[in-house]
Amino acid sequence: MDSFDFAGTVAVITGGGSGIGRAAALSFAGRGARVVVSDLVGRRAEAVAAEVRSAGGQAAGIAVDVTRGEDFAALRDTALREFGRVDVVMNNAGVLAMGAPESLPDEAWEKVLDVNLLSIARSNRVFLPLLLKQGSGHVVNTASASGLLAYGFDRLPYVASKHAVVGMSEALALYLGPRGIGVTCVCPSGVMTNISEQITVYGQASSSPRAPAHGIVSAEKVGELTAEAVTQRRFLVLTVPAIQAELVERAADLDAYLNARIAEQDTRIVEQTPPAFHRGAHHPEDAA
C-alpha cells in the first residue's frame, strides 16, 4: 500500500477534546488535513478546532456521545457538509473502571465496553461505507499497552476492552488493506492526559495498581507517532520500546512470563480511594 499524504484530506476524531485526541488533531492538521474534532463535551471539541484554525488550518468541532449511533451519523454529516469527504477516522474515546475483580458490577463492564469497544462498531457502520466506496483512507483505533499485555487486574473491563480493540483492529487491517484502506492501532503506555476524569472506582482500589514500569510520554508525542504511522501505513504504534521487549518475552514462554509477573505483584489494599481517582466520572474522552 502506498504511503498516505494528509494534504487535502479530512480526518474525524472522537474523544478529540483533550489528550491524545487533541494532539492527533493538531498533528494531522499540521500535515495538511482538515479535521472534525468531536468530544462528549462540545466546548472542548470547539476549543481544539479553534486551535487548529488559529494555526492556519481548517477545522470544525462537534459534541458527540459515542454510545449513540445517531451521534456518529451527525459527525459524518458534519464532515461531509463542511469539507465534502472523509479520509481518516480516529476512534479515540475511552473510559476506565477500577476495582477488585469481584467488586465490579455489570454496570462497570457495560459502560466500559459500550464506550471503548462498541463505539468502534458504531463508527465502522457509519464511516466504513464511505471509505470502501472511495477505495482509500485510513482508520485509527486507540487501544492501550493494556490491550497487548494484561496490565491491570484492578481494571479488568478496561483490559478486556482494549484487548478486543487490538483484535478488532488486526482483523480490520486484513479486511480493509486489500481494499486500499490502512489501519493503525495505537497502544500507548504512560501518557500525560486527563485520565483521572474518566475513572470510576468501585469498592476499594489498590494504592499500587499493576502498571508497566515505562517512562511517561506527552500526548503531543503520541499524536506525532500516530500521524507518522498513518503516513507510513504502519499498523502498531508503541510509545516506548520496552513494550516490544515484553511482548517478545511473553510470546517466548507465557507461563514463565505470568509467573514472573505474579511474583512482582504487590497486593496491598488501602482503606481509601486515592484522591486522583474520582468516583462517578463517566466522560468518554481519551482514557488510553
Automatic annotation (TrEMBL):
Q: Which UniProt keywords apply?
A: Oxidoreductase
The GO molecular function terms of this record are: oxidoreductase activity
Coiled-coil intervals in this record? Answer: none
The cross-references to InterPro entries, in alphabetical order and at most eight, read:
KR_dom, NAD(P)-bd_dom_sf, Sc_DH/Rdtase_CS, SDR_fam
Give any Pfam family that matches. Answer: adh_short
Q: Which domain of life is it from?
A: Bacteria
Domain called Ketoreductase: residue spans: 9-189
The record's annotation in SUPFAM superfamilies points to: NAD(P)-binding Rossmann-fold domains
What name does UniProt use for this protein?
A: Short-chain dehydrogenase
